[in-house]
UniProtKB/TrEMBL annotation:
The keyword Signal applies. The keyword Membrane applies. It is found in: Cell outer membrane. This is TonB-dependent receptor. GO terms for molecular function: siderophore uptake transmembrane transporter activity. It holds the Pfam family CarbopepD_reg_2. Keywords: Cell outer membrane, Membrane, Receptor, Signal, TonB box, Transmembrane, Transmembrane beta strand, Transport. Residues 284-755 form the TonB-dependent receptor-like beta-barrel domain. GO terms for biological process: siderophore transmembrane transport.
Length: 800
């Protein structure tokens, strides 16, 4: 009996002491040396596997033994290697693209990711397939493709701004190689700043972000740039109706260091200028944008890698009219830079250290005769962070990290002069703040069917001096007094805990149930005077008056795959509670911030949103695509608006339908179709207008906030892509046989038609008045302004 009890006591120790070994390394593209994100490593005999992270690294710990290990990635030849795991093994694997006619996919990743992952509302997009979809004016756009997903809504006709599950445009965290992008739009929102030729991977999270992400409430759009070809030089580009782009990549030192540089510019100004007469009043007016994206990579050793990436882009809008003597310039743009160091401490411990710079600035200058007026604003960040991943086992992965951000805001800077006379508009106001966070998250399998992901994030925010607070008289709105804070002196401090939770339970019929919870703080805000995200919108920090925005989201979903994972379906429901939201007060304008604080122009309230999202995706075969439908409701309550009555948000939509389909007619011909339908935007309208003899002025009576709807929005687009042959035949002089040789230059043509049935969708409403003022019979007349009719476009793309 005593021996039996001894065995029972030792059994857990003996079981724990089973020898386990770790297989780790990097998975790369055989032709270019680019790391592959989300590639699968799988051991069929024991049903264990892992996937490569965003840097292509994988780690798999299993009991020692001899195994057949399969490496696979969508569109690549599967590789199986026999590996003796009697000790830890480091193995870098290169996968070659499939030479067979492969089954195309639009959304890539693990075949069972739809049902197996604990993350809800997460989708990876394949950049190559995005290029086959209909393009607005010939320009492939990542953000317009994002708008076709359920739960993601467009902010307007042709616009790249987007809203996620009832959140505002400032509640989306947009990252380019880890660097936040504060204004992701060119041409006043009609194009995004992201050049698709330089992008490798797009990860969208809208169902409650993991603990490693923070600073925003609604979603994460994490965009990873290409590393550049480590083996040989290549180039690609395109020439469209309004813009051209060019990308060059190659090795600095073969298999050790690489680079990629990508540039893009519009040339509307260049094309139009010769047709404008020198004597024309508007000669010299024009608009163009340009951007430059670059990345350099260096494999220092087996354990160390360096990445340096950056983006710089500008929009330049100039208008001149000689007849009235007016001249104004509107430049704005972004600059980002990321320096990252990857270090492997061992086969299980992976560290990523990143230093980030981000800058966005906007300027407006105008002159009429001798009078000149200038206004500018912007935000600049310096960010340092570290992220640590510990691959404890195949059933347990722990991530932890921290970050620190130094913010500098310029809410509004104004200067004015008349001739040689300078008007006193005060010094340029700069607001400084610190933001920091630390997190830990652990994903582990409770059993074969039940997986949990727990995360906890602690965030803090501190506004510091120099700063001047203007105290307002609540009766007349005039400044009563001021409080001055010295350099480095604390103005206000906020902090909070942000718990995150998600789970997945596998059902026996290749389906799963998932649930999620996320609690987020947002300390940096956007004050918008328009329903469309414009460069005039102001970024500013939390303050004594502006509390941090707080978002709490609950979600539940059912996910199922059919026909050997060829079809993926999901239904998700969510409820989101939002606190401390902001809006401009009635009739407030950015220039009112001169000799004042931004937050004195704001009003504050709360909101909520709930909805259901339905998603069907055909992931394999010549015919593929997806259909997404969202039913939702988004409401707001502000004490200073409509007496505190609840009203729909300006982006509240009951119905939102998106269809994106593609069909490969042959290896060279592809057809793409897009159809979208959405409930009309909520809008406030003037209901009547009369002259008040008592007040001696015209009075307009408006509806309740967003009490009306524009007509529904719907549109159909179509595209045809012809891809030239990538190989050519030649006769082998020795054998006389026909052989295939890869062409040095190959190209494709994309023909797109935007708004194919010429739908007159509303862009905004214009109001006019008719009637007799003397007897108060003024009538309000509304007119719909539509922006884009049917728009055909053509783009020639090339690679070498």
């Amino acid at each position: 009996m005593k021996n039996f009890l001894s065995v029972l006591l030792l059994l857990p120790i003996l079981t724990f002491a089973q020898h386990k070994q770790t297989l780790s390394g990097y998975i790369k593209d055989k032709a270019s040396g680019e790391v592959l994100i989300g590639a699968t490593v799988y051991i069929p005999s024991i049903s264990k596997g892992a996937t490569s992270n965003v840097y292509g690294f994988y780690s798999l710990t299993v009991p020692e033994g001899s195994y057949d290990v399969t490496y696979s990635f969508v569109g690549y030849e599967e590789v199986t290697k026999q590996i003796d795991l009697n000790e830890d093994v480091k193995l870098n694997v290169e996968l070659g693209e499939s030479s067979q006619v492969m089954e195309e996919v639009i959304v890539e990743g693990k075949a069972n990711d739809n049902t197996n992952s604990t993350q809800m509302g997460q989708i990876d997009l394949n950049v190559d397939k995005i290029k086959s979809l209909p393009a607005f004016m010939g320009e492939v756009d990542v953000l317009k493709t994002i708008q076709l997903l359920p739960g993601v809504q467009s902010s307007g006709e042709g616009n790249t701004g987007f809203y996620v599950r009832g959140g505002g445009p400032d509640q989306n965290l947009i990252l380019l190689d880890g660097a936040p992008v504060y204004n992701a739009s060119h041409l006043f929102g009609f194009f995004s700043v992201f050049n698709a030729d330089a992008i490798k991977n797009i990860n969208m999270i809208k169902g409650g972000m993991p603990a490693k992400y923070g600073t925003k409430l609604a979603s994460v759009l994490d965009i990873t740039m290409k590393d550049g070809n480590y083996k040989e030089f290549h180039g690609e580009g395109g020439i469209g109706l309004i813009a051209s782009r060019f990308t060059l990549e190659g090795p600095i030192k073969k298999d050790t260091a690489s680079f990629i540089i990508s540039a893009r510019r519009t040339y509307i100004d260049v094309l139009v200028d010769p047709f404008i007469k020198e004597t024309a009043a508007i000669k010299g007016s024009g608009y163009y944008f340009y951007d430059l994206t670059a990345k350099f990579n260096w494999i220092v050793s087996d354990k160390d890698r360096l990445f340096l990436s950056g983006y710089f882009g500008r929009d330049v809008f100039t208008y001149k009219d000689k007849n009235i003597g007016i001249n104004f310039d509107v430049p704005w743009g972004n600059a980002t830079g990321s320096l990252r160091w990857n270090h492997l401490f061992n086969d299980k411990l992976f560290l990523n250290t990143t230093a980030i710079f981000t800058d966005f600035d906007f300027g407006f200058s105008s002159s009429v005769d001798d009078f000149r007026f200038e206004i500018s604003s912007g935000i600049q960040d310096w960010n340092f962070k570290q992220d640590l991943t510990y691959f404890m086992s195949t059933r347990n992965e722990i991530q932890a990290g921290w970050n620190f951000i130094h913010h500098r805001f310029i809410p509004t800077s104004v200067s004015a002069s008349s001739g040689e006379t300078e008007f006193d508009t005060g010094e340029t106001v700069k607001i400084f703040a610190y933001e920091g966070a630390a997190y830990i998250q652990d994903e582990f399998d409770v059993n074969e069917n039940f997986t949990l992901n727990f995360g906890l994030r602690y965030s803090l925010f501190q506004q510091i001096g120099p700063f001047t607070r203007y105290h307002k008289n609540p009766i007349n709105g005039k400044t009563d007094s001021t409080t001055t804070y010295g350099k480095g002196e604390q103005v206000v401090f906020y902090d909070g805990w942000e718990p995150r939770f998600s789970m997945r339970y596998l059902l026996p019929d290749k389906s799963s149930i998932k649930a999620g919870f996320a609690h987020n703080y947002q300390y940096v805000h956007l004050a918008s005077i328009s329903s469309v995200s414009l460069p005039t919108d102001l970024w500013f920090p939390s303050s004594e008056l502006v509390k941090p925005q707080i978002g709490t989201q609950y979600s539940l979903g059912y996910f199922r795959n059919f026909n050997n994972n060829a079809w993926e379906t999901s239904v998700e429901v969510y409820y989101k509670d939002l606190k401390n939201l902001i809006e401009y007060k009635e009739n407030a304008q950015p220039e009112d911030n001169v000799a004042d604080n931004v937050d004195n122009q704001l009003t504050f309230g709360n909101g909520y949103s709930y909805g259901a999202e339905f998603f069907v995706k055909k992931a394999k075969g010549k015919f593929n695509g997806w259909i997404g439908y969202t039913w939702s409701r988004t409401m707001r309550t502000f004490d200073d608006i409509d007496g505190g009555l609840e009203f729909p948000a300006k982006y509240d939509r009951r119905h939102d339908l998106s269809v994106a389909l593609q069909y490969d007619i042959t290896d060279q011909w592809n057809v793409g179709v897009i159809f979208v339908y959405a409930t009309g935007n909520a809008i406030s309208l003037p209901e009547r207008r009369f002259y008040s003899f008592t007040e001696n002025r015209l009075i307009t009576v408006w509806s309740t906030r967003n009490g009306y709807r524009m007509i529904p929005y719907h549109r159909g687009d179509i595209s045809v892509t012809y891809t030239g042959k990538t190989t050519k035949e030649f006769i082998d002089p020795d054998t006389g046989e026909k052989m295939q040789k890869k062409k040095r230059l190959h190209s494709s043509w994309n023909f797109s038609v935007y708004n194919v049935y010429n739908r007159r969708n509303p862009y905004f409403l214009f109001f006019d008045y008719s009637g007799d003022l003397s007897n108060n019979t003024l009538d309000v007349n509304g007119y719909q302004i539509s922006l884009f009719p049917i728009l055909p476009s053509i783009t020639w793309n090339f690679k070498f």
